[in-house]
Prior knowledge:
By secondary structure, this protein is of the alpha/beta class.
Amino acid sequence: MARGGRGRIPSMRPISNPPNPWLSTHVEYLEEPPPAELEVYEELAHSALAENDSPDVGFRWSVNPYRGCQHACAYCYARPSHQYLGFGAGTDFERRIVVKTNVHERLALELARPSWKHELVAFSGNTDCYQPLEASYALTRRCLETCLARHTPVGVITKSTLVRRDLDVIGALARGPGAFVHVSIPFLDERVGRLVEPGAPSPRKRFETLKLLSDAGIGTGVSISPIVPGLNESDLAGILEAARAAGATRAFMTLVRLPAEVLPVFRERLASAFPERVRKVENGLREMKLGVFNRSDFGVRMRGSGPRWEALEQLFEIQCRRLGLNRAEERRPAAKQGELFAS
Length: 343
């Protein structure tokens, strides 16, 4: 898992009048605001780079300007991290957002060290770096500008259309040290996506974003993450086809990961939104996770086991070959930077 001040509760300052991203100059990139009232806390980060030691993800260094996420995805594996702050993993994670107001300044200092080897830096290793508050704070943009100035390659993964705002700096990175963007699109059905990821842009908007990034000459991929058995397995082929049509050259998928604190949030949302599918989803999870809802060991946390998962992996590989995704010649340039979320 990531290391970077873990276990230390930061000194946070609640903001009485937090900036409203829907009143910003970048409101055109956001969809309707969520109904829940937002609480914003600002903190001064002691460091910007978090070091990852998990083999489940393909990067060593990541930057996370925000704690908590307004996208409110029912399955988000980052929810337990909010408990280190004295908050809850449920609605607190979605409504009480912590902003690292100096993260770009700390990053500049860390990338200026003589020991820095210009390794790839991943954005959104924990929560989405382009969640709505980014429209007001622009911390991700400032961090990207820092990476460009320090000739450091980046990888971004996001659900947000707000990434479109930064086509200029990401494009400059792509032409220089390197940049690649994965857009996370686990659902084709707009209704299903809205119920599971209520604060995130619609699937349609995400495909549009993927195309705009690709048309700008930025390398793109699609993340079908997570796979929720009984809910979106049948979307896999359609997502891959639509992503390829939007210019994506890579794809990966992961199985839903439900740590102890996430499981009750996910089950509550599932029962409310899809009561008729609860048993089907839970049985599918047990089938792909060897009889349990979650496996926490490194190497198996984000993938499944057994015939059903193997059949899905085979379908994924067949579709990728058919569409020309994940070709060796497409992967070689990124391999020099370090693979982001290698499949």
